[in-house]
Fold this protein.
Amino acid sequence: MAGKGKLFVVSAPSGAGKTTLIRQVLKRFKTLSYSVSHTTRAPRSNEEDGLDYFFISPAEFEEKIAKGLWLEWAKVHDNYYGTSKSFVKACLQKGKSLLLDIDVQGAEKIMASGLNPVSIFIMPPSFEVLSQRLLNRGTDSKEVIEKRLVNAKTEMALKDLYRYVVVNDDLNTALKELYSIFKKEMDGE
């Protein structure tokens, strides 16, 4: 795709399976790049700085806010998350397609930015399944899980803002649906 790449925005409530699905999409579509976000939260045991996120201090993040260096940023679960404006614009101008894994707040900002992203929301099959997935993950305290579930209700209510909604009830079915969306959008149909 010479000249201008496509921007994909994928959002989901915590525990909907977004990260698992995104990893598979990136394996399938070799010309699609992952836009690594910045965050102030602590890395999880399986995460690498520069690969999963750029982990920076709250002071560094706030300095970049003041300088207007974020395409979008939000404070979620008491931590900052943001996407570098210069990184995204440079990739798109080089004709690279980018996948942004961002929360609903950030997605709304990207959708209003004039970049015309392909927006995809990953839905859990039910709120009960989402709650069980968060418990089974075993990475968060009961208080953090409760906060994530409160946020999930708000996020799920905004799913209609997205161009596509994929329900992740069965991983293989959700993957097939995502593959179809990415193929259609990347082929320019």
Q: What stands out?
A: The chain has one domain: 7-186. The chain has seven helices and nine strands.
